[in-house]
Amino acid sequence: MDLSTLVLVLIAVTVASYYGGVMRSQALAGPLGGIKHLAALPSYYGFMAVIWTVVPALILLLIWTFTESSVIANMVIALMPPEAANLGEGELSLLYSRVGNVASGIMEMDTLGEAYRPAVERLVELDSFTAHFKPLLVITLAVTGALLALKMASAKWNVRYPVERTFNILLFLSSGIAVLSTAGIIFSVLFESIRFFQQIPLFNFLFGTEWSPQIAIRADQVGASGAFGVVPLLVGTLLISAIAMLVAVPTGLMSAIYLAEYASKKTRDIVKPLLEILAGIPTIVYGFFAAITVAPAIRRAGESIGLEVASESALAAGLVMGVMIIPFVSSLSDDVITAVPQSMRDGSYGLGATQSETIRKVIFPAALPGIVGGVLLAISRAIGETMIVVMAAGSVANLSINPLEAVTTVTVQIVTLLVGDQEFDNAKTLAAFALGLILFLITLGLNFMALHIVKKYREQYD
Amino acid sequence: MLGINKMAGENRTQESAEPLAPVNVPGPETINENYETVGSPLVDNPLVKCRNVNVHYGEKQAIFNVNIDIAKNEVIAMIGPSGCGKSTFLRCINRMNDTIDICRVKGDIELEGQDIYNRSVDAVELRARVGIVFQKPNPFPKSIYENVAYGPRIHGLVNRKSDLDDIVENSLKRAGLWDEVKDDLDSSGTGLSGGQQQRLCIARTIAVSPDIILMDEPCSALDPIATARIEQLIADLSKNYTIAIVTHSMQQAARVSSRTAYFHLGKLIEVGETEVIFTRPLHSLTEAYITGRFG
Q1: Which residue of A269, A344, A351 to mutate against B (max B Cβ within 10 Å)?
Q2: Terminus of chain A with fewer CB atoms < 10 Å: N or C?
Q3: All domains of chain A, ordered by start, with CATH?
Q4: What ipTM was assigned to the predicted interfaces of this complex?
Q5: Which superfamily does B34-290 belong to?
Q6: Distance from A356 to chain B by nearest Cα, in Å?
Q7: Which residues contact residue A290 at a Cβ distance below 8 angstroms, ignoring those fewer than 6 apart?
Q8: Model pLDDT for residues A110-129, shown as the tens digit of each residue
Q9: Other CB atoms within 10 Å distance of the CB of residue B22
């Protein structure tokens, strides 16, 4: 029986146990004169039976699945000839997989040698044992649990408490998954970064002004110095993000004010979804829009007034990124502006303020913390943005704040470093993780600041 | 002294009301489209003159053919059961209803002889002359000083900082708040207590020197002590200002006003001297309301 059949059978048993629990509760309630005499509603009896069915069976299944391979491996390796015990870890696992291949019939016995026959036979035996016995045990446990729950059910026992508690735990575990995966990501990046910093000093990385990650593989290679100074990348990132914010913040904010305060309901219903379409365009589409349409246009425009513009300019990438972020800023700002209580507007109008005075002097200041929070979130979005800059900003690590030159960003370099065949033990590849860590810390700091600002000032006008 | 000591709750429904109404006045059944207000809705030389005012919210009519005058330097109370249109009517007087899209106001409302709904009248300037205080205190999330200085600033009433300081001080004094806040004018207006916030809102309104102050249930969110202070303030202000106050509390109407208008389902039933309304109402509906038989 394979895993999918097992799961289907389990689901069937679970459904049956639910209805079993409900019917059992009704049977209990019958002689007492109705379900109002039960300690809990029938559905709780159903859920109680479900919990008893699923939880023990699932725990057994999980433990078994995660431990079976190592338990079997230990048992099989114990039967291997003595010379196997002297092998290193890598060679032993290679040998074990060959035993596995023979056991499943992919390879012939004689490729291993007769000395391994007991191990192979044991493996075949154990595999067929788990294949039959595991589902049987799991289903038996599920059915036993269900029957036990039905037997335990009584009119007096308030099953609502254990059921609610179980759901509580389930919800807690679900929220734990997000936290755990964040921690997992942080640690994986952190450990690789530490390996990088063992090769390149932290100081050189943070304050170096030259970025040239090519490392000489052979002694006679030239032009591969291996400089890992992150400053040009950060400057490029900040330059492009700044251009993007210069586009996105005024446009987004003003469109938010228009939508929230001036637009009629009809206009708003049309314009707002259209603006939000911008947010739905895949960033790679923005990327080739920047590379194929905007960058050449800027170059031609620059040339016509006698300016030298690189064909991959920070300006092009920044402008398009700004357009991409407009809905981000406008949508968040629109929400906070709309959230300013009507009583603030009434108070201002009641004093004879015009609409624009009311917006400038009352609504905007009241909404400002939320707007700042939204803008900071937009900045961290801009800093982490990858596809547009990969396609339009170039990959030359110029240390320059001239928006007409090609610059590169942290994200572009991560992509460049990790694309293609790479060894995971040299500084060039590990540098990607260090860059990732820097990026993560910057955006984390910005998000933290944004949340803090929003939280601190949120309730001010209530 | 007033006919309000009979508590609500004994005889709540109108059906069970005793027929106490004097003869020769229209009964509840005659409250139709063409109902004419009883009592004395009109005065000589009114500050505000309202004629045939009708208000619609979309399809629904909220105010029916209201005719009333407000005299200079009087305190007029508007009372009536919930949803009777008294707040809607009050908000017509400074065109606050303009800010509600679906609201349409018809009829004539004149302030010192000028039709305020005329195209040539700027609602913004009108609202500087007709101040309003709302039900829930709504100070701006700014300092106490800035809250009061807001109006004079936007209307360009002052050129020098010292003049502004004077206006702020005088307004806060008139609103009875100066002694409590004079040492921390820079702290936030939202940090004050509910009663203080409402007095701040009144100070903010006085600061632009309006001709008339509208108050829309100014004490309904306040405790009895804060309410008593606001009522005292209204009495003080009535020496210099005209005040129109909407209230749910008949005791409050009796205490603060010189004239009282009773609204019922969007119609203005009766207007008269407050003492007359609360002791010898002309209309059976007014009588039923002030004796607590419904509302």
Answers
A1: A351
A2: C
A3: 3-158 (no CATH), 211-461 (1.10.3720.10)
A4: 0.82
A5: P-loop containing nucleotide triphosphate hydrolases (3.40.50.300)
A6: 11
A7: A316, A317, A319, A320, A321, A388, A391, A392
A8: 777 777 777 888 888 888 88
A9: 11
